[in-house]
Amino acid sequence: MKKIVLLASLFGFMLLILSSCGEAKDYSDTYNPDTDYQYFLLEQGRAIQSGESDTGYYFLNNNYIYYMDKGAMKPVLLDNRPESDCLKQTATAPISNCNAYVSNLDGLFGGFLAYNDHHLYVLESAQVLDKDRAVTRYSLIRLSLDGTKRTKVLEFKFRPMAIAIHRGIVYYSSQDFDVNSDGKYQIFQYDLNKRFAKPKQVYLGKLEKGSIGDIIPYGKNVYFLEAGIQNGANLYRTFRYDIQDETVTGMFTGDPKANCALVGILHDRLIFNKFYGDVKDPKSWVIYEADLQGNHEAPLPIERDFFTFYYAADKYIFGQPASIYMTPEQLKAAPDAYRMTVYDQQYQPIDTVDLSFLPKDHNLLPGDDRYMFAHYRKEDASYIAYLDKQELGSGKAKFKTLIKTDHPDTVITQMEK
């Protein structure tokens, strides 16, 4: 009996030593391309649908995953087996043998794809029976980089409004649509490295008709955007969750009349704007910077003559005129209404790029050090276009089609010359 007790004690002691020698958590603000959230591929207001590895890029387009080698720059379906049924879906024959397919019942722009720690993660949805009625359920799936191995990581009762994976943790926002829930919305975190882990609440929202938009982890912080109604007025605001201290702090709160949103990160500086409720108000045209805690705010020396959508990453800030808010007279008088201005690290304009090919419903991704991307849909096809940043400053930079996926059963992949 004593031997059994002794062995049990030794075993417990060894487990304690092993657990104490585990990999330490990373609370630095140094970007790690393998484990950190790829903030430069965020589609503002939507989920991330692209990922970058050491060797190439992954794109989700019309529910199919494409891979593009950085050397060849020729996108291909992740599953090119002759026996697969990729791109052959019909009303009576759903996809059943395609490693590149992501089941998504929420439409073309409801998808999620991310690269993290040498895996791909996607959000899938499916119809299931719940108390004799069909309901949609959602699952976060981890894929091998070739798509052949799939593991269900996490299940959701309702579709997450935003998802971000960062340093082994899944951050996601959830809104309860049960009859008696009053639309309760919150943010959870889930540890991918712990067996039997359960989601842990990070933030509980209390705004009327509130929701959580973008979730953007960077370093030891997770930034998120909350929107809703307070005292009868629409508002949106940005918060910072400190991963190490486990605290949530409001950001950019110096002016209570301003709605503030993070639009990018540039060399450990947060780039954000302040909206005062009217696109014609010149105060809403100014863009700002701050440190990673949201302190030391300062306006940037970028002058605009109309409300602008901004994107920032790597070496550049991109300014896109908000032409959707312009009157026909303003559009006629503004020759650059459909041109994006590119600013360098000294905030000087170095080029403009034509955006007239984009429909109203589109997303621009600031991208890595080499490419910027555009994700959009026209008529019956979904597109991904790219901009080669090496051409910036030449006056010849332009977006070129990278992937075109026709609906529902044809695919064309090409790299325009």
From TrEMBL:
Protein name: DUF5050 domain-containing protein
Keywords carried by this UniProt record: Signal
Annotated source species: Paenibacillus spiritus
Signal peptide start-end: 1-24
Claim: Signal is one of the keywords in the record: yes
